[in-house]
Amino acid sequence: MYSPEHGGIGNSRSWFTYEELAEATNGFSSESILGEGGFGCVYKGVLSDGREVAVKQLKSGSGQGEREFRAEVEIISRVHHRHLVSLVGYCISEQQRLLVYDYVPNDTLDYHLHGKGGTMDWATRVKVAAGAARGLAYLHEDCHPRIIHRDIKSSNILLDINFEAQVADFGLARLAGDVNSTHVSTRVMGTFGYLAPEYASSGKLTEKSDVYSFGVVLLELITGRKPVDQSQPLGDESLVEWVSSKFLFVVNFLQ
């Protein structure tokens, strides 16, 4: 294991060798995979000291993967909060880029709402919402400069065995700039169904973009529905539009 001064990025804690992480994940075996997506794969691993970790292996040779790697190391190394996932370290080895996090054992909110995680009672849903909100508020209000996550969604909210929420995946995050700036102009990134309409149309990113996305997560918690569900009747596929139509119906009825 190497210290950051041997070529580390930002203020991250530890630099692992590729061999250490290969050993920790049993050679990046398929049995160790926790999840995969466009960015690459996440593996469960056990370090030599017995610590359980999650190892994200980004796709090699990808410019986007390199940008996400640097953004995540730079940004997540700035934050320390019980409701944000903790970065243990990282690895740069030729074309390989890997990130090492504390392992959070109870999967994602998406899994519990839409997968095979079983039914969540209302007290647990409120607990998860409050925890994720505290993590997001820390990014927006207590970090200097402020941090905009840019990809808040139920699959990026991890849960521990006590259903304490931890916001994860800072690969698309951006620093909000100085306190006088009103927005950051950027290429639109994020996940369909969670994107704030004004951000999607203008590319002007603010903390409110995260708040909108978190609002969609709250609707998921309340309704149990996915943000976009093609199995729903025509016109009801979008969770936000479906809820809006129900709300307008109630308002018109009360009038």
Automatic annotation (TrEMBL):
Entries under InterPro entries matching the protein: Kinase-like_dom_sf (IPR011009), PERK1-13-like (IPR047117), Prot_kinase_dom (IPR000719), Protein_kinase_ATP_BS (IPR017441), Ser-Thr/Tyr_kinase_cat_dom (IPR001245), Ser/Thr_kinase_AS (IPR008271)
GO MF annotations in UniProt: ATP binding; protein kinase activity; protein serine/threonine kinase activity
Pfam family, any one: PK_Tyr_Ser-Thr
SUPFAM superfamilies in alphabetical order: Protein kinase-like (PK-like)
Main location: membrane
Protein's membrane topology: Single-pass membrane protein
Localization terms from the record: Cell membrane
GO BP: signal transduction
CC per GO annotation: plasma membrane
Keywords: ATP-binding, Cell membrane, Kinase, Membrane, Nucleotide-binding, Serine/threonine-protein kinase, Transferase, Transmembrane, Transmembrane helix
Highest taxon above the source species: Eukaryota
Domain Protein kinase: 28-255
Residues that coordinate or bind ATP: 56
The EC number(s) this enzyme carries: 2.7.11.1
CDD domains, sorted: STKc_IRAK
Reactions accelerated catalytically: L-seryl-[protein] + ATP = O-phospho-L-seryl-[protein] + ADP + H(+); L-threonyl-[protein] + ATP = O-phospho-L-threonyl-[protein] + ADP + H(+)
Record-stated family: Belongs to the protein kinase superfamily.
Designated name of the protein: non-specific serine/threonine protein kinase
Annotated source species: Nicotiana tabacum (Common tobacco)
Lineage: Eukaryota, Viridiplantae, Streptophyta, Embryophyta, Tracheophyta
